[in-house]
Design brief:
Blueprint: H1 2-15, H2 24-41, H3 46-61, H4 66-70, E1 75-81, E2 86-90, E3 93-96, H5 104-117, E4 128-132, E5 138-142, E6 152-156, H6 165-170, H7 176-187, E7 192-196, H8 202-210, E8 219-223, E9 236-240, H9 254-261, E10 268-271, H10 279-286, E11 294-298, H11 302-316, H12 321-331, E12 334-340, E13 346-358, E14 361-376, E15 379-386, H13 394-399
Parallel strand pairs: 7-11, 7-12, 8-9, 8-10, 10-11
Antiparallel strand pairs: 1-2, 1-6, 2-3, 4-5, 5-6, 12-13, 13-14, 14-15
Length: about 400
């Protein structure tokens, strides 16, 4: 019935005055009138009428075939590989969607609609962009000629109500003991870095940890594309990167935002993700009295995260490697490493303390490690076990908190 939808949609567009602003109510009224006329000519069931009404409205005013997927809370990821191939992740399982765009031109219209909502630009000369939807969902877009088979859209959806630590404990992503330990560290202003692979839940976990921050502190968040959902913080400043125009002018980078945040009297700075030379500015911020700050990064392990930070710092500054390592060891207290297991569950795999420099290497002390015990009903069984005690307890003492 896609031909019928296209025909009716064209009649709707021909019936409205595109030179004036048409309200949603007027648009839906026009769609209903045309559906009534067509129903007299050809029988259309009530169920089909409702579907056509919704599809035509979504195509003209919303994000076409993507709209129903975006409104479905069970779908966590939408992957568009050109006009005809759409995949979704639902309940941890990736499958092909039966829907597709009527043409590549329609897909390109949807792309421009998405980026315009967050004041971004994407075209043949700037074919890659990160954006977001009004509901906070993260969007990555890649256009031809980079994408060989047509525009690629990847949408990461976040729950309307942020996941709580109680839910993570219920999902067995973390144990109550480890959750209590991290709560104590956040309150005592330990600098915590969250690492993990794509889809391991870093942003979700950062949101969870931020809920432990005392409500009377001033928090500044810095992100490429705003995703964090901090609740209960009255004195909150949210900042987002601004991409440059087609000439690369008017760019406001993560580095710029970190530098200006230091003049805004923050108690803590939260950097959504460190992925470039802004790492040096983040480390300097942590080393200039802004304890209790949080950030995330892509890595395969805590040790790998430190290696990546070294490389990112060296991209932006000509500094001796040992000086970089001292900066990292001084700035970061704890690394929480997340992973996605073969059963698609997201778990805290390791909580590690960053110690000092020994034999020219940063020393790590694992505090908790995930120990796998087998499988049951297709689900990995295991738990986060305590392996070492916290070495540096000065911040706990200064904050007046203790942990056994």
């Amino acid at each position: 019935m896609s031909w019928l939808k296209e025909k009716l949609q064209q009649e709707v567009l021909n019936s409205i005055d595109l030179t004036t602003e048409v309200s949603d109510k007027e648009l839906l009224s026009t769609i209903d009138e045309i559906l009534v006329v067509k129903s007299r000519e050809n029988y259309i069931s009530m169920q089909e009428k409702r579907r056509l009404r919704r599809d035509i409205y979504n195509s003209i005013r919303k994000l076409d075939v993507l709209q129903d997927m975006i409104e479905d809370p069970s779908i966590t990821e939408i992957m568009v590989n050109g006009a005809k191939d759409i995949f979704i992740e639902q309940n941890g399982v990736i499958s092909r969607c039966s829907k597709s765009f009527e043409s590549e031109e329609k897909l390109e219209d949807v792309v421009q609609q998405i980026v315009s909502q967050s004041n971004r630009i994407v075209n043949a000369s700037t074919p890659i962009v990160d954006s977001r939807l009004p509901d906070g969902s993260r969007v990555n877009i890649v256009l031809p000629p980079i994408a060989l088979d047509g525009p690629v859209i990847t949408i990461r959806r976040f729950p309307e109500n942020p996941i709580t630590i109680d839910q993570l404990i219920e999902y067995e992503s973390i144990t109550p003991e480890a959750a209590g330990f991290l709560e104590t560290l956040v309150i005592a202003k330990y600098n915590i870095f969250i690492s993990g692979g794509t889809g391991s839940g870093k942003t979700t976990f950062l949101n969870v940890l931020s809920n432990y921050i005392p409500s009377n502190e001033r928090i500044i968040t810095i992100e490429d594309s705003a995703e964090l959902q901090l609740r209960g913080v009255a004195n909150l400043v949210r900042m987002e990167v601004r991409n440059g125009n087609t000439e690369g002018i008017n760019l406001v980078s993560i580095r710029d935002l970190i530098k200006t945040s230091l003049r805004m009297r923050p108690d803590r700075i939260i950097v959504g993700e460190v992925r470039d030379e802004a790492a040096i500015d983040m480390l300097q911020a942590l080393n200039t009295g802004h304890d209790g700050s949080l950030s995330t990064g892509h890595a395969n392990s805590p040790a790998d995260m430190l290696n990546r930070l070294e490389s990112l710092v060296l991209l932006g500054a000509d500094i001796p490697l040992m000086a970089v390592r001292r900066q990292i060891a001084s700035a970061i207290d704890i690394i929480v490493h997340l992973g996605r297991l073969r059963d698609k569950s997201r778990r805290v795999l390791e909580i590690t303390e960053v110690l000092n420099i020994d034999n020219n290497e940063i020393t790590l002390s694992p505090l908790y490690k995930f120990v796998e015990e087998g499988e049951k009903n297709g689900r990995v069984v295991g738990k986060l076990e305590k392996v070492n005690k916290l070495t540096y307890t000065e911040k706990l003492s200064r904050a007046g908190v203790t942990y056994g």
